[in-house]
Every structure is written in C-alpha cells, then in structure tokens.
C-alpha cells in the first residue's frame, strides 16, 4: 500500500555522501529541510559538501567513517544520536565496484567487495536497530543494484555482495516492520552517471540528481523496493526469467554488455 512519509525536519544519516548518488541525495534532502549527518572516508570532501549544504540553511554534520571498520560505524551512529537525539532515516549508499576478470581471479577483491558492499551495511543495521526500536519507528534504505539476481561475467564480486545485501534486507523487512515499525527499503539502481561507472560508460545511464529524485519519491511513498530506470528494470527482470541453460548459452560478449573490465585491469588495486 502506498504511504505518504513526511521528510521535513527529519534526521537523516547518509553514507557514501562524497559519491555521486549519496551527494545528490544529500542535496535533494536539504531541499526537504532535513537535518543531515553525512559520512564517507574523504573528510575534506565531506567538509566541502557540508559547508555548501549549511550555506543553504540546513543543519549538517559530518564525520569520517570507513564502513569496513565496525568501530567507525558505531561512532557514526552514536555521533548522529548524540547531536540530534534520533535517527529517522538512514540512507546507506557507500559501495565500490571492483571488477574481477577471470584472468586474475583474486579472493582479496571479493573479500573487499563483501566488506564494503555487504558487511558495511550490516554493521550499520546492528547499531541502527536499537536506536530505531527505542524510537518506535525509523526507515533504513540501503543501495543494492538492479541486476541482483543473475551473475554477470567480470562482475561476480560486485554482484555477489549486492545479492547478499538484497537477500538480507528482504529477510529482515517483514520482521522489522511488524515487530518494531522499522521500514526496510532496498534501492536497486540501474546505471547512474557517477564516478563509479566512469570507466564503464553505460547506455541509458541517468544523472545522480534524477536518481536522487526517484529515490526520495520512493521513500515518501514508503515503497519497499525502489528500482529504476524503467527500461532497464524491464530488461533486467526479463533476463532474470531466462532458464539457466539459455542464459549460459548467451555469448559472454552479450551477457557482459558494455563496459566489461579488460584483462589489463587484472592489476587493478582495490580501493
Ligand atoms: N552508479 C551506478 O550506476 C550504480 C548502479 C547500481 C548501484 N550503485 C550503488 O550505489 C551506491 C553509490 O554509488 P555511486 O554510483 O554514487 O558511486 P561513487 O560515486 O563511487 O560513490 C561511492 C561512495 O562510497 C563511499 N565509499 C567507498 N568505499 C567506502 C568505505 N570503505 N567506507 C565508507 N565509504 C566508502 C565513497 O566515499 P569515500 O571514497 O570518500 O569513502 C563514495 O562516497 C553504491 O552502493 C553502488 O554500488 C551504483
């Protein structure tokens, strides 16, 4: 059932706020007059964004947080709670896209992807749940990806970390809502023109501002899943229906689409 969540003056925690989607969401939510707490690793950039937002008249605090570090995550949640006394909405946008071409199958890449894209969000859930339970309400929206059901050549580390996240969020959704009035939203973007996909340009990619707009509208409507853009949603969900034997016969050139990591990227350093 479509809801109607009011965002004005709500306290919002945002991770990945120095990136394309997280920054656009911070800017978008500043227009809703939310109180913002923004996090990422690049402190200088956080300071810059916070100064810009505050000049527009909103309250904005920031702190460095590496989501791989559980202590950093605990400190981030404590920091927001101490300053604002509540956390109404958490937008978990931190993530990395690290290719893992088969030429260099390397478990350290997969570990790093899981630590940032999956476990980083789980740490946040662990510390956000007690706050939201005590409030008797709250919304946690985490960014997964649109193709979170099928493996794509070269992107297994990313896909596996996002599939794990989507499944975990789904497994928590009903219980969190029914027992504690906590909304869990899974955000599943297709291609968004951000630094993350700069090296892998995709046809039909939308701007981060447009993505932020869609996400905020979805949150207001209390959607459980926010997926976009529409054409990509249709294509990806159709591909999900292919039986395995048919999917496996698609030439990998077609499966992987544009922007497949090249074999030269086998020396790529993990961020
Ligand atoms: N762009 C797309 O087409 C697309 C599609 C589907 C899903 N997504 C997802 O959308 C989310 C946002 O991505 P984006 O496109 O905005 O990418 P982006 O511009 O590269 O931003 C990524 C953000 O994650 C932060 N981050 C990375 N590693 C971190 C760590 N260890 N600890 C804390 N923060 C960390 C980065 O900040 P610092 O470097 O300052 O830490 C940055 O703010 C990601 O979860 C991504 O997987 C993106």
| Structure summary, number of beta strands | 7
Proportion of residues in β-strands = 5-15%
Quaternary assembly? single chain
Major sheet size, sense and barrel closure: 7 strands, parallel
The domain count comes to 1
Structural class: alpha/beta
Runs in which pLDDT lies below 50 for 5 or more consecutive residues are none
Total number of helices: 9
Give the SSE string.
EHEHEHEHEHEHEHHH
Top CATH class:
Alpha Beta
- The CATH topology annotation reads as Rossmann fold
| CATH architecture heading | 3-Layer(aba) Sandwich
Helix content: 40-55%
Q: CATH superfamily assignment?
A: NAD(P)-binding Rossmann-like Domain
> Looking across the biggest beta sheet, what order are the strands in?
3-2-1-4-5-6-7
Overall radius of gyration: 18 Å
Describe this structure in words.
With 271 residues, this protein is an alpha/beta fold. It has a single domain (11-267), classed as NAD(P)-binding Rossmann-like Domain (Rossmann fold, 3-Layer(aba) Sandwich). The protein has nine helices and seven strands. It has a seven-stranded parallel beta sheet, with helices on both faces. Helix 2 links the parallel strand 2 (35-40) and strand 3. Helix 1 crosses helix 6 (208-220) and helix 4 (107-135) runs parallel beside helix 5 (156-180). Bound molecules: NADP nicotinamide-adenine-dinucleotide phosphate (NAP). The site of NADP nicotinamide-adenine-dinucleotide phosphate has 30 residues, from helix 1.
């Amino acid at each position: 059932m479509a809801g109607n969540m009011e965002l004005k003056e709500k306290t919002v925690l945002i991770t990945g706020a120095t990136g394309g989607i997280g920054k656009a969401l911070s800017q978008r939510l500043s227009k809703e007059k939310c109180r913002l707490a923004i996090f990422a690793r690049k402190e200088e950039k956080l300071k810059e964004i916070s100064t810009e937002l505050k000049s527009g008249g909103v309250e904005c605090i920031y702190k460095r947080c590496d989501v791989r570090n559980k202590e950093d995550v605990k400190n981030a949640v404590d920091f927001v709670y101490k300053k604002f006394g509540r956390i109404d909405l958490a937008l978990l946008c931190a993530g990395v896209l690290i290719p893992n071409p088969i030429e260099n199958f390397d478990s350290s890449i997969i570990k790093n992807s899981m630590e940032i894209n999956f476990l980083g969000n789980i740490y946040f859930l662990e510390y956000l749940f007690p706050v939201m339970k005590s409030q008797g309400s709250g919304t946690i929206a985490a960014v997964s990806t649109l193709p979170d059901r099928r493996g794509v050549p070269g992107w297994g580390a990313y896909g596996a970390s996002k599939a794990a996240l989507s499944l975990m969020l789904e497994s928590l959704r009903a219980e969190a809502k029914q027992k504690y009035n906590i909304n869990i939203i899974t955000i599943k973007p297709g291609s968004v023109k951000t630094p993350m996909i700069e090296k892998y340009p995709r046809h039909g990619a939308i701007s981060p501002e447009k993505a932020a707009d869609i996400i905020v509208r979805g949150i207001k409507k209390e959607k459980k899943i926010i997926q976009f853009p529409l054409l990509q949603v249709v294509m990806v969900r159709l591909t999900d229906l292919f039986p395995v034997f048919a999917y496996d016969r698609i030439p990998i050139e077609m499966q992987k689409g544009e922007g497949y990591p090249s074999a030269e990227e086998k020396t790529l350093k993990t961020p």
